[in-house]
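Reply to dn_fold:

You asked what the input looked like. This is it:
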Amino acid sequence: MITNFISAKIDLSENVIELHKFVEAELHKHGKPLRWAITAVDLKKGKVTLEAVVTKQN
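and this is what came back:
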């Protein structure tokens, strides 16, 4: 099992529930999320910066 640190920028959604689902779906592209956090929000650009730790099978 490999553990990776991911940093990503995604579009900000107005609906918090949809944002959560979108974040989970994006992170699953890189592996199984162990934890993630929104570390920055840019309202002018409509972007959210995420940091996450994901695991992936070898």
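The CA atoms of residues 6 and 52 lie 5 Å apart.
Hope that clears it up.
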